[in-house]
Amino acid sequence: MTEIQPSAPARAKSGHSAGGVEHVNEPHHDQFVVVGNHLAQHPELSLTAIGLAVHIQSLPARTPVGIKTLAAKFPEGEIRVAAALRELEAHGYLARTKERLQSGRVVTRTISYNRPGVAAARAAMKPAAPRPAPPSPGSKVSAPAPSAASDAVLDAALDVLAGLRAHDPRLLLAERDVRRLAPAVSAWLDRGVPPTAVQRTLTNALPKDPILNPAAFLAHRLRALLPPPLPAPAHPPTPVRPDPLQTCEGCDRAFRSPGPGRCRDCRPVGVAA
Length: 273
Prior knowledge:
By secondary structure, this protein is mainly alpha-helical. Among the domains are: about 35-115, Arc Repressor Mutant, subunit A, CATH 1.10.10; about 150-205 and about 210-225. It is built from 10 helices and 4 strands. The strands form 2 sheets. It has a two-stranded antiparallel ribbon with strand order 1-2. Strand 3 and strand 4 form a beta hairpin. Helix 6 crosses helix 7 and helix 7 packs parallel to helix 9 (about 215-225). The longest helix has 16 residues, at about 175-190. The chain is elongated and about 110 Å long.
């Protein structure tokens, strides 16, 4: 007879895995930072670099993030902190430059990017402002205001393209391809297609075979499936205004007529007909 093993693990319930993570998520209303999966699940960054990037993104602006400052807050030490910062620089999450102050002291300026490449792509896509002509004496010069609508469309287009890899890793795009395809996505958005619909069209019914050139594949879909512009809204017919009210000269009763006179009952028989 087989001996019962009381220490044997219990069988998992039907339909549920015995292992793996389970999430208990509660909404945050304050004191939180939004982190993209491109960072939290980065396949090339070390856990130290990922954690350090999350920490830096959660800090208020102008908070010191030097190697010695960070090493004093965490147990990793200066060597591991320095290596993690170099990883983040190499993958575009940090940019560090040396600047000399007026006092002569050299400081390190650190810029944290929560979405690497998007800011550079946005700057590359926006046309440079034309150089204004020199003002004539006594004239006032006003700088043209940037188009907030076009900037919003461009930002949405960049978001769509950068987020495709979250739906399928085969749609990972290089930064130059994001810049090149952004105008095609903007054309869809300008025609009233929501960003979610553009994303759904680009990721729907993907081939099972490897996608060797995702940029060319997406460019073909954007070109071949571009919907027509929305028809212009039909103008409602101009309402016909009724004749104004008149007071009958025979019975003082109100009636509608283009001009003053008598109502139907007070007119002669021939005129009323």
